[in-house]
Amino acid sequence: MQHLNILAAQWVAPTIDYFGLAPELVLAGGLCIVLLVDLFIDERKKWLLSVISSFTLLAAMVPVLMLGLSETSVRSMFDGRYVVDNFSLVVKSLFLLAGYVVVLLSSSHIEQGEYWRGEYWFLLLTSLLGMLMMASSRDLVSIFVALEFLSIPAYMLAAWRKRDPKSNEAGVKYFMLGVFASAVMLYGMSLMYGVANSTLLTDIGAKVAATGEFSAVHALAVVFVIVGFAFKVSAVPFHTWAPDTYEGAPTPVTAFLSVASKAAGFVALVVLLYTAFPLAQDVWQPLIWVLSALTMTVGNVLALKQHNIVRMIAYSSISQGGFVLMPLAVAGLVGSGSTALRAVVLYMIVYAATNLGVFAIILAVSNKTRSGEISSYGGLFSYAPTLGVLMTIFLASLAGIPPLGGWIAKFVAFQSLIQSQSNWGYALALVGAVNSVIAFGYYGNVMREIWMRPVPDGDVTTISVPGSLRLALAITAGATLLFGVLPGVGLHFADLAEIAGAITR
Amino acid sequence: MYVNQFLFLASVLFCIGVYGVIARKNAVLILMSIELILNSVNINLLTFALRNGSTDGHTFALYIIAVAAAEVGVGLGLVLLVYRNKKTISVDDLSEMRG
Q1: In angstroms, rounded to a whole number, what is the distance separating the alpha carbons of residues A180 and A299?
Q2: pLDDT of the residue at A1
Q3: B22 in contact with A at a CB cutoff of 8 Å?
Q4: For the segment A380-406, what is each residue's pLDDT rounded down to a tens digit?
Q5: Interface subset of B 24-83, CB within 8 angstroms of A
Q6: By 3-state DSSP, what share of chain B in percent is helix, strand and coil, each rounded to 5?
Q7: Which pLDDT tens digit goes with each residue over A434-450?
Q8: Structural domain boundaries in chain A
Q9: Pairing with A113, which of A2, A193, B7, B80 sits 20 to 30 Å away (CA)?
């Protein structure tokens, strides 16, 4: 019973850096307030909850900014299991701002229908708290807990319209595949713990670095963990849940899943690749290469034949996920680590701004047309010129047309592939370039409807956009244009993102 | 007793679980298959923890047990929701959306 000796050792309480944990603590406090206030207020005053939620998210931004400006660049807690470094601060502010925009998108939408508004805000904030934890987790256990923390409320949000069979179906499909994926990922994690005898990511990385040995079990573990996260970021062939869930879930929830939840999956994947398996690149580079090429191509081809706008955006977001994975396919080569990280972070930031903008327009237009068909966008420019122009800007940014944000994100991603000077990198850049052209097919189709087609039912009354949606549109359109016109702004944040403890190559 | 016997048991359980998730059409049976996978993970973790003499594996297994309980709670809630609306819990009948 040698192993029990560890238990007899002197136990020392870990020091907790409350300043480093402040964003999470503010959010945790805010969501408790939402839950309590929901119990005691009248049905007619439930709009207060959206105000509390949005202020909570903005209040949590304050400590993130203060931590960013403080002298200590890396705060490490619990023996390096929970780390607040520049990477985690950049993605935390991304999650909080994306969450704020989702709150703005939701506040007018969820007033419709008799559903439970208080729980909606509570679940949304809980999921965001899980994402903040994910950004700082540097241990298999805390990554697993953060993943479930952000996923379980998301399953419930997808099925939030209790009496709508489509929403039920969205929730069940998301739940079944999400839980299956996390179970497969856990099996990989258990093997990894067996190989490295530690759950700390830097220990797992250092184990291979020290011995230089790489066993078959280790390779199996890496593959299982990557497959688990491929489900989370809906990479082909693990994407089957995404279109149905995105179409069936309430539209603001779809915006949340396709932006924040997906970004959280990428954050975990990046942290694992850079700190736990940096020297296993022979295992994961080909895997990520295939996932990336398939994700871009299949997502794009299936998006071409869609008639429903949300379903089209679902497939478009799958294929955008392929572009985020693209730089990671060469991240293990000597000298490519930091450029790939920068490309991934920049792509996530720009994609979040643009895609949330698309969903803001979809919500505004569906208020009037009550339809999800692409043909219902006919003649949008003639009766709602601002919405028409903004939708064109967002779609052009997703397609990667200069001078918009999506262009600079794609440019940096391709640049990191070319700079790797490997044949695999060149080949993937070629696949990506072909896909950028295919993508213009379906983005251009919506633009043609907006600018050239007649109004389908001849109803040309203008669309009244609620104030919260106007603010969301202003933020997302501003960010999309700003990142494109002044590429330095986005690159500045992407350059800040360094993962503490990563073995950079 | 050898370590590989436990690992073999875990991998067999894992395979049965994956087969169940793929082959079963009943939502509750799929949930049970997922539980089987999670328990194979727990066996793996405890085996490695005993072999290596560290407590990390025990901690991890406790977390998995707790989180799996929360997961199944949500899952059964969703299955109940579907049953109320559609009077069936077969995943094949969940086909409102296509394409």
Answers
A1: 22
A2: 46
A3: no
A4: 888 888 899 999 999 999 998 888 888
A5: 27, 30-31, 34, 37-38, 40-41, 44-45, 47-57, 59-60, 63-64, 67, 70-71, 74-75, 77-79, 81-82
A6: 80, 0, 15
A7: 999 999 889 988 888 88
A8: 287-505
A9: B80
